[in-house]
Amino acid sequence: MGSSLISNDVKSWVSSVLNRDVKQYGKKYLFDCNEETCWNSDQGERQWVILEFPQSVKVSELRIQFQGGFSAGTCRLEEFQDMVLQHFLN
Predict the structure, then answer these.
(1) Domain segments of the chain as ranges
(2) CA–CA distance, 34 with 37 (Å, rounded to integer)
(3) 21 vs 5, 16, 45, 68, 77, CA distance in Å?
(4) How much of the chain, in percent, has pLDDT values that exceed 70?
């Protein structure tokens, strides 16, 4: 396992926050390494997370952990490269 690519320089956006309660469920909890906290989206289809790295990165592993027995029905991984959004993994 390599080191994490997540740092303070990585910008992030999320589709929604449960009941707009960013203090309890905001995106700051995506990468805080605390299993007692989490980002929680509002209900609905196609919830998403966008990460913007300050430089090109090579991703060798992606870990997603869902809390409380919840999980996604499907996941889709996309990249934005050379000004073009590319879908490369379901």
Answers:
(1) 1-89
(2) 6
(3) 27, 10, 19, 18, 26
(4) 90
